[in-house]
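Lab notebook, bench 4. The sequencing result for the construct came back, and we need a structural model before the next group meeting so we can plan mutations. Quick request posted to the team channel:

Model the 3D structure of this chain.
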Amino acid sequence: MTNHKWNVLNIMRFYTRIGQPFNAKVYLDFVTPGDGPLGRNKTIPTLSEIQLIIRRYIENGWAQRVEDNVVITSKGIKAMQDREYKTSAAYEEKRKIDYIAKGFARPDNRDANGKYVRGGVSSRKQKKETQK
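Done. Here's the predicted structure in token form:
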């Protein structure tokens, strides 16, 4: 499922970078293939919904209107970066919890100073101990 609220900003940033005009119609053309939606479960927003999202971004100061074109501002780029940081930190935390739950977590082999401390016995020592 596409989060159109943030996807509009991403595509707006792309069109601003390449110097092409961007508006709600351009976004819908970008998201929807020429044949229309590919499947039943793919929900395409209406033109008025995208226009409402763009209008909110202009009110927030994340975008500004230049004639018929809508351009992302530095405040909008900063908001996108903050969101990416928060979501990536949340995904990282979830991955840690999942690894621990599955038993794949590596033990922390560092002492208080941050130096690496060898953990366990080497395979050569294990072989010698089993041979004795």
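Helices lie at 4-18, 24-31, 47-60, 74-102, 123-131.
Will bring this to the meeting.
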